[in-house]
């Protein structure tokens, strides 16, 4: 999933919106514990995968406790051997539906996607990965306008393959069945959010906690985030997705990115503001206000990011251990290597 919107990076990442700017410093989530970045397993392709069930709409995550270790740094995830940074990006999505996001390499030119199944980690050890394999060998993409993303738009627990048009906001979705992509392609225009002349950043996240990833459009100029809730269901595009004109407003500073992921113990996506200099701030999504609006907590820092090297790394998010909370990842732009920080409650 591409998680970031804002500055120049948008379109290359998955569930965040970002405004890139300068800064230097590292990004290390919170007061973090236990570094020991000894090299470990290498990502290698999707395997079978089981498929545990996930949280009920708007309920607390069953295994979620805000323990005291906050962010737990695990050994580095090696990048794919032949990773090509000029044309490829690292992404994470749950392809086999086991709740853990798998490691992907997406080629922006050919649309090819390789996947390495995330086989989990045991008590602080590094993650184990299946062998790399092609999920998709090619996808036709309009150069400069269309890009590949992944999100679970129909709520079945498998992240679906999306082609997003950044110019007009339309989405082509291919449903993921048991780790494979079916032949059926769904299309949604999302016109409600795309007025002529606007070009908002698009990300997908579950804003209402019903397990379906919703369509979010971030307008950098105003800071407003609008949404189409439930653009798809299990049978295809819905004719009347609920339009929320103002989900939340976020004022991004230079070098900051906005992303939406759940980081606490409910199942609703929270707003994450990542500073390239390191700090990570969040506005927790509390609930509906009863009048159709959403309630958000005040912004607070949830990670210091002290050691993030912004020259070589950027921050992304994915749920690597499958507990329902997004973990913080530092991705090396050149090698595709990832430093994972498991979310244990933040700062
Ligand atoms: Ca998985
Ligand atoms: Ca799905
Ligand atoms: Ca949340
Ligand atoms: Ca997690």
UniProtKB/TrEMBL annotation:
Spans annotated as Disordered: 22-80
InterPro entries, per database record: FG-GAP, Integrin_alpha_N
Comp. bias intervals (Polar residues): 59-71
UniProt-listed Pfam families: FG-GAP_3
Chain intervals with Low complexity compositional bias: 30-57
Domain of life: Bacteria
Keywords assigned: Signal
Transmembrane parts of this sequence: none
Gene3D superfamilies listed in its UniProt record: Integrin alpha, N-terminal (2.130.10.130)
Protein name (database record): VCBS repeat-containing protein
Organism: Streptomyces yaizuensis
């Amino acid at each position: 999933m591409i998680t970031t919107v804002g500055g120049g990076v948008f379109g290359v990442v998955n569930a965040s919106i970002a405004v890139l700017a300068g800064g230097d410093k590292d990004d290390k989530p919170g007061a973090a514990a236990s570094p020991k970045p000894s090299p470990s397993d290498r990502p290698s392709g999707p395997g079978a995968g089981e498929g545990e069930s996930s949280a009920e709409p708007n309920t607390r995550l069953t295994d979620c406790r805000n323990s005291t270790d906050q962010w737990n740094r695990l050994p580095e995830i090696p990048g794919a051997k032949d990773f090509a940074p000029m044309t490829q990006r690292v992404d994470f999505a749950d392809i086999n539906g086991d709740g853990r996001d798998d490691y992907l390499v997406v080629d922006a030119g050919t649309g090819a996607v390789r996947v390495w199944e995330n086989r989990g980690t045991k008590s602080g050890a590094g993650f184990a990965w299946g062998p790399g394999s092609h999920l998709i060998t090619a996808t036709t993409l309009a150069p400069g306008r269309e890009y590949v993303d992944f999100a679970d738009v129909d709520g079945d627990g498998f992240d679906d393959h999306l082609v997003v048009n950044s110019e007009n906001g339309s989405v082509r979705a291919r449903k993921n069945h048991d780790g494979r992509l079916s032949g059926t392609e769904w299309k949604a225009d999302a016109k409600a959010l795309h007025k002529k002349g606007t070009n908002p950043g698009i990300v997908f996240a579950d804003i209402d906690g019903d397990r379906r990833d919703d369509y979010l459009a971030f307008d950098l100029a105003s800071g407003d985030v609008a949404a189409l809730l439930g653009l798809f269901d299990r049978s295809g595009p819905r004719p009347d997705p609920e339009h929320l004109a103002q989900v939340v407003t976020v004022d991004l500073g230079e070098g900051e990115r906005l992303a939406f992921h759940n980081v606490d113990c409910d199942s609703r996506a929270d707003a994450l503001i990542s500073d390239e200099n390191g700090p990570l701030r969040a506005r927790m999504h509390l609930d509906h206000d009863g009048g159709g609006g959403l309630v958000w907590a005040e912004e607070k820092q949830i990670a210091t990011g002290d050691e993030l090297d912004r020259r070589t790394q950027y921050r992304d998010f994915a749920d690597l251990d499958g507990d329902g909370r997004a973990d913080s990842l530092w991705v090396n732009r050149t090698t595709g290597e990832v430093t994972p920080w498991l979310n244990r409650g933040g700062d």
